[in-house]
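Supplementary Methods. Inverse-folding protocol.

Structures were first reduced to a discrete structure-token string of length 288. This string, shown here, constituted the complete conditioning input.
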């Protein structure tokens, strides 16, 4: 992180990780359904791992916007606690507050496992969008001070979330459907349409472009594809960086990413927005 001049990263735990495998195309997929309490147990284990990283490996937690500003000013590596899929809740809203108390500040509603919140891309549609419980979860995220991340959600779920939300939404990792710059088409089902992206932008939020591009110049083209649809104020660098093929395998490459943005036609102000400023705006509005 220091080599890449990176002050903070979103470190997300994956409650349904024990259930995941790869299909014939090498894409992550669900291999079985969870046992009762299994995902909650794994969630708690990953929270304990994050505690270990803070206690013994020099990372600090960013729990407020002021923490992020301090980390940036001091150049000290910090992490924003995230969770990729709220499947661990098992219908128990109090587990969301518990996660917040343990340092989680970004809550992705769905992942690969069916839950009672909403439908997910690459899954069977069972709810026809966001459920009433899902709406309640969003309202509780607002109450607690957590970013609502609609990555992996179907377009219908994401648009319903946008109607419920009173804070900017984040769609943390995707690309524009039909991207000419993306290295692989095997994850086309995880990309989003222009209307899907606009629904997020209209909340004041942002769409993160993941790093599944052949090189940094192609990645910048992917950023520009989305910027042409929703504007520079509503895009950011996506999560899920250590992927193959991928243009950002190491945090040290971030300085090269900024150089590629400038080389690709973004101004220094625009590069600043994409590399952290837009996310900071969302974090401040959602978390405080």
């Amino acid at each position: 992180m220091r080599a890449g001049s990176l002050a903070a990263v979103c470190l997300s735990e994956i409650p349904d990780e024990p259930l995941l495998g790869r299909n014939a195309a090498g894409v992550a997929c669900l291999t079985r359904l969870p046992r009762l309490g299994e995902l909650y147990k794994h969630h708690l284990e990953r929270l304990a791992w994050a505690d270990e990283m803070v206690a013994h490996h020099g990372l600090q937690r960013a729990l407020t916007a002021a923490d992020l500003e301090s980390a940036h000013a001091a150049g000290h590596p910090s992490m924003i606690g995230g969770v990729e899929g709220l499947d661990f809740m098992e219908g128990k809203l109090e587990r969301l507050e518990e996660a917040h108390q343990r340092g989680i500040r970004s809550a992705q509603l769905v992942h690969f496992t069916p839950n009672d919140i909403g439908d997910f891309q690459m899954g069977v549609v069972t709810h026809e969008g966001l459920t009433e419980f899902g709406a309640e979860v969003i309202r509780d995220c607002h109450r607690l001070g957590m970013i609502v991340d609609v990555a992996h959600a179907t377009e219908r779920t994401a648009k319903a979330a946008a109607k419920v939300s009173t804070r900017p939404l984040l769609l943390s990792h995707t690309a524009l459907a039909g991207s000419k710059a993306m290295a692989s088409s095997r994850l086309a089902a995880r990309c989003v349409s222009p209307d899907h992206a606009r629904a997020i932008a209209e909340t004041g939020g942002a769409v993160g472009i993941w790093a599944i591009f052949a090189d940094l110049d192609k990645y910048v083209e992917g950023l520009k594809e989305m910027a042409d649809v929703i504007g520079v104020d509503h895009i950011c660098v996506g999560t899920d960086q250590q992927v193959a093929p991928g243009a950002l395998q190491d945090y040290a490459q971030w300085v090269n990413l900024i150089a590629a943005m400038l080389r690709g036609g973004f101004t220094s102000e625009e590069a600043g927005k994409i590399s952290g400023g837009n996310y900071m705006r969302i974090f401040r509005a959602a978390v405080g």
